[in-house]
Amino acid sequence: MTILVCGEALVDLVPVHEGPLLSPKLGGGPFNVAVAIGRLGSKVAFLSRVSSDPFGEQILGSLHDAGVDTSWVQRGDEPTTLAMTTLASDGSAQYSFYADGTADRLVQDPGDLPDDVHTLSFGTLSLLYEPGASVYANLLKRAHAAGKLTMLDPNIRPAAIDSTSGDITADGFRTRFRSWLPDVDILKVSEDDSYWLGLGEEGTTVDDWLAAGVSAVVMTRGGDGLSVFRASEEISVPGVSVDVVDTIGAGDTVHGALLQFLNEETIVTSSAVRDMSKEDWERALSFAARAAAITVSRPGADPPWASEAPRD
Protein backbone atom coordinates (compact mmCIF):
# COMPACT_ATOMS: atom_id res chain seq x y z
CA MET A 1 0.00 0.00 0.00
CA THR A 2 1.42 3.35 -1.08
CA ILE A 3 1.05 6.84 0.37
CA LEU A 4 1.20 9.46 -2.41
CA VAL A 5 2.49 12.85 -1.25
CA CYS A 6 1.54 15.68 -3.61
CA GLY A 7 3.14 19.12 -3.76
CA GLU A 8 6.28 21.15 -4.07
CA ALA A 9 9.94 20.55 -3.39
CA LEU A 10 12.11 23.64 -3.05
CA VAL A 11 15.33 25.00 -1.60
CA ASP A 12 15.38 26.84 1.73
CA LEU A 13 18.11 29.47 2.02
CA VAL A 14 18.92 29.31 5.73
CA PRO A 15 21.15 31.79 7.67
CA VAL A 16 24.51 30.43 8.79
CA HIS A 17 25.43 31.30 12.41
CA GLU A 18 23.19 34.38 12.39
CA GLY A 19 25.46 35.98 9.80
CA PRO A 20 24.97 37.23 6.24
CA LEU A 21 25.76 33.86 4.65
CA LEU A 22 22.95 31.58 3.49
CA SER A 23 23.13 27.81 3.23
CA PRO A 24 20.84 25.98 0.75
CA LYS A 25 18.76 23.23 2.35
CA LEU A 26 16.27 21.04 0.52
CA GLY A 27 12.71 21.53 1.69
CA GLY A 28 9.11 22.33 0.92
CA GLY A 29 6.32 20.95 3.08
CA PRO A 30 5.30 18.03 0.85
CA PHE A 31 8.94 17.11 0.14
CA ASN A 32 9.62 17.00 3.89
CA VAL A 33 6.51 14.89 4.49
CA ALA A 34 7.55 12.36 1.83
CA VAL A 35 11.08 12.13 3.25
CA ALA A 36 9.72 11.66 6.78
CA ILE A 37 7.42 8.82 5.69
CA GLY A 38 10.17 7.14 3.70
CA ARG A 39 12.69 7.36 6.54
CA LEU A 40 10.14 5.99 9.01
CA GLY A 41 9.64 2.95 6.81
CA SER A 42 6.34 3.14 4.93
CA LYS A 43 5.95 2.83 1.18
CA VAL A 44 5.65 6.36 -0.20
CA ALA A 45 5.70 8.09 -3.59
CA PHE A 46 6.09 11.77 -4.46
CA LEU A 47 4.04 13.66 -7.07
CA SER A 48 5.48 16.98 -8.20
CA ARG A 49 7.25 18.74 -11.05
CA VAL A 50 10.95 19.07 -10.27
CA SER A 51 13.47 21.20 -12.11
CA SER A 52 16.26 19.67 -14.16
CA ASP A 53 18.65 22.22 -12.62
CA PRO A 54 21.31 21.15 -10.06
CA PHE A 55 18.92 21.76 -7.15
CA GLY A 56 16.38 19.48 -8.82
CA GLU A 57 18.97 16.73 -9.11
CA GLN A 58 19.71 17.07 -5.39
CA ILE A 59 15.99 16.90 -4.61
CA LEU A 60 15.62 13.63 -6.51
CA GLY A 61 18.74 12.23 -4.87
CA SER A 62 17.44 12.98 -1.38
CA LEU A 63 14.09 11.42 -2.17
CA HIS A 64 15.82 8.27 -3.40
CA ASP A 65 18.02 8.18 -0.29
CA ALA A 66 14.90 8.25 1.90
CA GLY A 67 13.31 5.38 -0.04
CA VAL A 68 10.72 7.55 -1.80
CA ASP A 69 9.36 6.36 -5.15
CA THR A 70 9.98 9.15 -7.70
CA SER A 71 8.25 7.55 -10.69
CA TRP A 72 5.43 10.10 -10.29
CA VAL A 73 7.85 13.06 -10.47
CA GLN A 74 7.63 15.19 -13.61
CA ARG A 75 10.69 17.11 -14.81
CA GLY A 76 11.04 20.55 -16.42
CA ASP A 77 13.64 23.11 -17.42
CA GLU A 78 12.06 25.77 -15.19
CA PRO A 79 14.06 26.77 -12.08
CA THR A 80 13.58 25.42 -8.57
CA THR A 81 11.50 27.51 -6.15
CA LEU A 82 13.60 29.26 -3.49
CA ALA A 83 12.50 30.13 0.05
CA MET A 84 14.42 32.76 2.02
CA THR A 85 14.31 31.69 5.66
CA THR A 86 14.82 33.88 8.73
CA LEU A 87 15.07 32.43 12.23
CA ALA A 88 13.82 34.09 15.42
CA SER A 89 15.62 33.74 18.75
CA ASP A 90 13.36 30.80 19.70
CA GLY A 91 14.22 28.93 16.50
CA SER A 92 10.91 29.63 14.76
CA ALA A 93 11.13 30.25 11.02
CA GLN A 94 9.63 32.85 8.69
CA TYR A 95 9.75 32.62 4.90
CA SER A 96 9.70 34.68 1.72
CA PHE A 97 9.48 32.96 -1.65
CA TYR A 98 10.86 33.23 -5.17
CA ALA A 99 8.38 31.20 -7.20
CA ASP A 100 7.65 33.01 -10.45
CA GLY A 101 7.80 30.57 -13.34
CA THR A 102 9.27 27.75 -11.26
CA ALA A 103 8.89 24.08 -12.02
CA ASP A 104 6.69 22.86 -9.18
CA ARG A 105 3.76 25.16 -9.98
CA LEU A 106 3.52 23.71 -13.51
CA VAL A 107 2.69 20.13 -12.47
CA GLN A 108 0.36 18.23 -14.82
CA ASP A 109 -2.55 16.00 -13.84
CA PRO A 110 -1.18 12.46 -13.29
CA GLY A 111 -4.32 10.71 -14.50
CA ASP A 112 -5.94 7.71 -12.85
CA LEU A 113 -4.76 6.59 -9.42
CA PRO A 114 -3.84 2.90 -9.09
CA ASP A 115 -5.51 0.77 -6.41
CA ASP A 116 -2.18 0.48 -4.57
CA VAL A 117 -2.35 4.20 -3.71
CA HIS A 118 -4.69 4.28 -0.72
CA THR A 119 -3.69 7.58 0.95
CA LEU A 120 -2.93 11.01 -0.51
CA SER A 121 -1.31 13.99 1.18
CA PHE A 122 -1.47 17.63 0.04
CA GLY A 123 0.02 20.85 1.31
CA THR A 124 1.74 24.25 1.36
CA LEU A 125 2.63 26.29 -1.74
CA SER A 126 1.17 23.69 -4.10
CA LEU A 127 -2.26 24.76 -2.82
CA LEU A 128 -1.54 28.41 -3.60
CA TYR A 129 0.25 28.86 -6.92
CA GLU A 130 -1.59 28.32 -10.18
CA PRO A 131 -1.93 26.43 -12.42
CA GLY A 132 -0.70 23.65 -10.15
CA ALA A 133 -3.10 24.55 -7.32
CA SER A 134 -6.10 23.64 -9.47
CA VAL A 135 -4.44 20.39 -10.57
CA TYR A 136 -3.98 19.33 -6.95
CA ALA A 137 -7.49 20.47 -5.94
CA ASN A 138 -9.00 18.33 -8.69
CA LEU A 139 -6.87 15.37 -7.67
CA LEU A 140 -7.95 15.78 -4.03
CA LYS A 141 -11.61 15.69 -5.07
CA ARG A 142 -11.13 12.64 -7.30
CA ALA A 143 -9.16 10.76 -4.67
CA HIS A 144 -11.76 11.33 -1.97
CA ALA A 145 -14.59 10.33 -4.31
CA ALA A 146 -12.69 7.10 -5.06
CA GLY A 147 -12.54 6.23 -1.36
CA LYS A 148 -8.87 7.13 -0.81
CA LEU A 149 -7.83 8.57 2.56
CA THR A 150 -6.92 12.26 2.19
CA MET A 151 -4.85 14.50 4.47
CA LEU A 152 -4.23 18.20 3.93
CA ASP A 153 -1.96 20.73 5.60
CA PRO A 154 -2.55 24.32 4.37
CA ASN A 155 0.74 25.30 6.09
CA ILE A 156 -0.12 28.99 5.75
CA ARG A 157 2.66 31.22 4.44
CA PRO A 158 1.30 34.80 4.65
CA ALA A 159 4.31 36.15 2.75
CA ALA A 160 3.27 34.11 -0.28
CA ILE A 161 -0.39 35.18 -0.15
CA ASP A 162 -1.70 38.56 -1.33
CA SER A 163 1.79 39.61 -2.46
CA THR A 164 2.82 41.25 -5.71
CA SER A 165 3.64 37.84 -7.18
CA GLY A 166 0.81 35.94 -5.52
CA ASP A 167 -2.19 34.49 -7.35
CA ILE A 168 -4.84 35.07 -4.69
CA THR A 169 -5.83 37.37 -1.83
CA ALA A 170 -6.02 36.27 1.79
CA ASP A 171 -9.81 36.03 1.80
CA GLY A 172 -9.69 34.42 -1.63
CA PHE A 173 -7.45 31.71 -0.20
CA ARG A 174 -9.78 31.24 2.77
CA THR A 175 -12.67 30.76 0.34
CA ARG A 176 -10.63 28.24 -1.64
CA PHE A 177 -9.70 26.45 1.59
CA ARG A 178 -13.38 26.06 2.51
CA SER A 179 -14.06 24.46 -0.87
CA TRP A 180 -11.56 21.67 -0.13
CA LEU A 181 -12.98 20.65 3.24
CA PRO A 182 -15.68 18.17 2.07
CA ASP A 183 -12.88 16.14 0.41
CA VAL A 184 -10.48 16.15 3.38
CA ASP A 185 -10.42 13.33 5.93
CA ILE A 186 -7.64 14.65 8.16
CA LEU A 187 -6.81 18.35 8.34
CA LYS A 188 -3.51 19.26 9.98
CA VAL A 189 -2.93 22.85 11.12
CA SER A 190 -0.70 24.76 13.49
CA GLU A 191 -2.15 27.15 16.05
CA ASP A 192 -0.91 30.01 13.84
CA ASP A 193 -2.64 28.47 10.80
CA SER A 194 -5.87 28.14 12.76
CA TYR A 195 -5.72 31.78 13.85
CA TRP A 196 -4.99 33.04 10.30
CA LEU A 197 -7.76 30.92 8.76
CA GLY A 198 -10.21 32.39 11.28
CA LEU A 199 -9.56 36.00 10.24
CA GLY A 200 -11.37 38.15 7.69
CA GLU A 201 -14.83 37.93 6.16
CA GLU A 202 -14.21 34.34 5.05
CA GLY A 203 -12.76 33.11 8.35
CA THR A 204 -13.70 29.70 9.73
CA THR A 205 -13.07 27.69 12.90
CA VAL A 206 -12.34 24.10 13.84
CA ASP A 207 -16.05 23.52 14.42
CA ASP A 208 -16.79 24.80 10.91
CA TRP A 209 -14.19 22.45 9.41
CA LEU A 210 -15.66 19.44 11.17
CA ALA A 211 -19.18 20.46 10.14
CA ALA A 212 -17.98 20.68 6.51
CA GLY A 213 -17.03 17.01 6.56
CA VAL A 214 -13.50 16.76 7.94
CA SER A 215 -13.20 13.65 10.13
CA ALA A 216 -10.35 14.88 12.34
CA VAL A 217 -8.43 18.14 12.80
CA VAL A 218 -4.88 17.70 14.11
CA MET A 219 -3.40 20.86 15.64
CA THR A 220 0.26 21.39 16.51
CA ARG A 221 1.01 23.57 19.53
CA GLY A 222 4.78 23.85 19.36
CA GLY A 223 6.42 22.70 22.59
CA ASP A 224 3.01 22.29 24.21
CA GLY A 225 2.24 19.19 22.16
CA LEU A 226 -0.49 18.06 19.78
CA SER A 227 -4.28 17.86 19.81
CA VAL A 228 -6.88 16.21 17.61
CA PHE A 229 -10.42 17.52 17.39
CA ARG A 230 -13.33 15.27 16.46
CA ALA A 231 -17.06 15.86 16.48
CA SER A 232 -17.35 14.52 20.00
CA GLU A 233 -14.07 15.35 21.74
CA GLU A 234 -10.59 16.86 21.88
CA ILE A 235 -7.63 14.56 22.58
CA SER A 236 -4.23 16.01 23.49
CA VAL A 237 -0.72 14.79 24.24
CA PRO A 238 2.17 16.82 25.67
CA GLY A 239 5.22 17.86 23.74
CA VAL A 240 8.62 16.24 24.20
CA SER A 241 11.18 18.37 26.03
CA VAL A 242 14.22 18.99 23.84
CA ASP A 243 16.79 21.70 23.11
CA VAL A 244 15.43 23.40 20.00
CA VAL A 245 17.89 24.27 17.23
CA ASP A 246 15.16 25.43 14.84
CA THR A 247 11.59 24.48 14.00
CA ILE A 248 12.06 23.99 10.25
CA GLY A 249 10.18 20.86 9.16
CA ALA A 250 8.63 20.14 12.56
CA GLY A 251 5.04 20.28 11.36
CA ASP A 252 5.93 18.29 8.25
CA THR A 253 7.44 15.58 10.45
CA VAL A 254 4.20 15.45 12.45
CA HIS A 255 2.28 15.09 9.18
CA GLY A 256 4.55 12.33 7.90
CA ALA A 257 4.69 10.46 11.19
CA LEU A 258 0.90 10.44 11.48
CA LEU A 259 0.51 9.02 7.98
CA GLN A 260 3.18 6.42 8.67
CA PHE A 261 1.39 5.40 11.89
CA LEU A 262 -1.97 5.14 10.13
CA ASN A 263 -0.41 3.09 7.34
CA GLU A 264 1.18 0.66 9.79
CA GLU A 265 -2.14 0.30 11.61
CA THR A 266 -4.00 -0.17 8.28
CA ILE A 267 -6.15 2.90 8.98
CA VAL A 268 -6.55 3.88 5.35
CA THR A 269 -10.21 4.87 4.89
CA SER A 270 -12.43 7.70 6.09
CA SER A 271 -14.48 5.32 8.21
CA ALA A 272 -11.36 3.84 9.82
CA VAL A 273 -10.24 7.33 10.87
CA ARG A 274 -13.67 8.08 12.32
CA ASP A 275 -13.55 4.77 14.23
CA MET A 276 -10.18 5.47 15.87
CA SER A 277 -10.37 5.22 19.66
CA LYS A 278 -9.01 7.75 22.12
CA GLU A 279 -6.11 5.38 22.79
CA ASP A 280 -5.38 5.07 19.05
CA TRP A 281 -5.11 8.84 18.73
CA GLU A 282 -2.97 9.15 21.85
CA ARG A 283 -0.52 6.61 20.42
CA ALA A 284 -0.50 8.31 17.02
CA LEU A 285 -0.01 11.82 18.42
CA SER A 286 2.66 10.69 20.88
CA PHE A 287 4.61 9.04 18.07
CA ALA A 288 4.35 12.20 15.96
CA ALA A 289 5.46 14.37 18.90
CA ARG A 290 8.53 12.20 19.49
CA ALA A 291 9.45 12.31 15.80
CA ALA A 292 9.04 16.10 15.63
CA ALA A 293 11.20 16.55 18.74
CA ILE A 294 14.06 14.85 16.92
CA THR A 295 13.61 17.15 13.90
CA VAL A 296 13.73 20.37 15.96
CA SER A 297 16.82 19.15 17.84
CA ARG A 298 18.95 19.48 14.69
CA PRO A 299 19.25 22.16 12.01
CA GLY A 300 16.97 22.29 9.00
CA ALA A 301 14.24 19.86 7.98
CA ASP A 302 15.93 16.59 8.96
CA PRO A 303 13.23 14.06 9.93
CA PRO A 304 14.19 10.97 11.93
CA TRP A 305 14.81 7.47 10.64
CA ALA A 306 12.82 4.54 11.99
CA SER A 307 15.74 3.50 14.21
CA GLU A 308 15.64 6.92 15.92
CA ALA A 309 11.89 7.03 16.50
CA PRO A 310 10.51 3.71 17.78
CA ARG A 311 6.75 3.43 17.59
CA ASP A 312 5.98 2.56 21.22
How do the helices and strands line up, and which of them pair or pack?
Elements (H helix, E strand, L loop, with lengths): L1 E5 L3 E6 L6 E6 L1 H12 L3 E4 L1 E3 L2 H12 L8 E3 L5 E6 L5 E6 L18 E7 L8 H14 L3 E5 L16 H11 L5 E5 H7 L8 H6 L4 E5 L5 E4 L4 E4 L12 H15 L5 H5 L3 H19 L16
Parallel strand pairs: 1-4, 1-9, 2-7, 5-6, 9-10, 10-11, 11-12
Antiparallel strand pairs: 2-3, 7-8, 12-13, 13-14
Helix pairs in contact: 1-7, 7-9
Pfam families: PfkB
Protein name: Fructokinase
InterPro entries: Carboh/pur_kinase_PfkB_CS, PfkB_Carbo_kinase, PfkB_dom, Ribokinase-like
Structure write-up:
With 312 residues, the chain is α/β, with parallel strands linked by helices. The chain has helices spanning 29-40, 54-65, 132-145, 170-180, 191-197, 206-211, 250-264, 270-274, 278-296, and strands at residues 2-6, 10-15, 22-27, 44-47, 49-51, 74-76, 82-87, 93-98, 117-123, 149-153, 186-190, 216-220, 226-229, 234-237. The protein has one domain (2-297): UDP-N-acetylmuramoyl-L-alanine:D-glutamate ligase. Helices cover 32% and strands 22% of the residues. The strands form 3 sheets. It has an 8-stranded mixed β-sheet with strand order 4-1-9-10-11-12-13-14, with helices on both faces. A 4-stranded mixed β-sheet has the order 3-2-7-8. Strand 5, helix 2 and strand 6 (74-76) form a beta-alpha-beta unit. Helix 1 crosses helix 7. The model has no long low-confidence stretch (mean pLDDT 93). Keywords: ATP-binding, Kinase, Nucleotide-binding, Transferase. InterPro entries: Carboh/pur_kinase_PfkB_CS (IPR002173), PfkB_Carbo_kinase (IPR050306), PfkB_dom (IPR011611), Ribokinase-like (IPR029056). Residues 4-304 form the Carbohydrate kinase PfkB domain.
